[in-house]
């Protein structure tokens, strides 16, 4: 069966009880656990099929946990991060797929050094997008999650992840584009992660001070003044019951996450009370929905779960 929405032919289920499917596209292993992890865990618990697509292996990532800063770990960082990703996806209950690109690293200096040859950020758009289009057509997500055009923060791999996600969202349903990458499938909604939005950070900052605790967010207030938020939050997904699962997935990325570091300063009970959602901006939708939303599948459930 098929359905035409806004001139686009969408694949439709042939019968009822079609499972909802969510695809989250991320740059590196650990990004899936720091952005939207509790959302994914909630939907998995509800029976939604969730696929994390990881664009690179994180081979050029720094070791951010002093306990893991050892020569044997540095020497085999790609394998170690692969194993960390395997543990995290098991904790979250998600499927996961590697696109196989090479981490670009985070260039620092003035002027910035050139990116390393052959890295993900330097891949031509079409060759970088092709394997993601294939993943979309094989998994057939109804909803895609990615970063905004600034990457959420200016890591070249995050910016590239946005570029291929936007391109794949537009191209996957078109039989004339990427014709060698499988049967067309058109996702219905595309969201940007808004994990560190200003309203949430301010709420957590205030909650910590009200609890008589030291807030880790003092410097963030000035950053928001200097760099205004690009996008409004349109969608807040209640998922506080899954914050603990999110934290266990974060800890699985032991090279990247210090158990005594920033991620765990705000107690879970404070987080659940002050801000019990994970937040998103609805960037594209081919279905009708009313904003604000509290469900990534708003406007889709009625069409799919017949």
From TrEMBL:
Source species, domain of life: Bacteria
Root EC class: hydrolase
Transmembrane segments: none
EC number: 3.5.1.115
Catalytic activity as recorded in UniProt: mycothiol S-conjugate + H2O = an N-acetyl-L-cysteine-S-conjugate + 1D-myo-inositol 2-amino-2-deoxy-alpha-D-glucopyranoside
Subunit text: Monomer.
Family assignment from sequence similarity: Belongs to the MshB deacetylase family. Mca subfamily.
PANTHER family documented for this protein: N-ACETYLGLUCOSAMINYL-PHOSPHATIDYLINOSITOL DE-N-ACETYLASE, N-ACETYLGLUCOSAMINYL-PHOSPHATIDYLINOSITOL DE-N-ACETYLASE-RELATED
Protein known as: Mycothiol S-conjugate amidase
